[in-house]
Amino acid sequence: ADVANRTAAIADGHLNVEGPLLPILHDVQKEFGCVPEAALRVIADKLNLSRAEVHGVMSFYHDFRQEPAGRHVLKICRAEACQSVGGEVLAEGVRKALGIGWHETTPDGRITLEPVYCLGLCSCAPAAMFDGELHGRLDDAALSGIVMEAGR
Ligand code: FES
Fold first, then answer.
1. For residue 2, what is the enclosing H or E element?
2. How far does residue 2's CA lie from ligand 1's centre (Å)?
3. For a tag site, which of 11, 31, 75, 132 has the least CB within 10 Å?
């Protein structure tokens, strides 16, 4: 009920702006660290959209999540320039090492893995972002170093 009430209040604050959905999603995620199912339904109600429509927008913008993130977030670029220089193999390696798939969090809550589509670092591909910091020219060793050295 708390999630629903607080989401309703956030939504009400944006109802008279044009294109309220994105600002609402951003604020809800800021409030809860994610956009939980209960919030999604409230937002849909408030905007006269279906749950599926709101969910569709959420998944289109890769910044929104439905569950809280781990303590660290690793975003690996899966766009063209990075793919062409082994980005996918790199991603596969880290997924195996962590034992998780895209959009998943390690069971200890340490790391969340997310795909991202171009970090603007194409000339230094393959690229990734770890806790908001950009890293380019990555290879297995460099990437696992970054991931493993991060604190609990
Ligand atoms: Fe990966 Fe641009 S394609 S940073």
1. helix 2-14
2. 40
3. 132
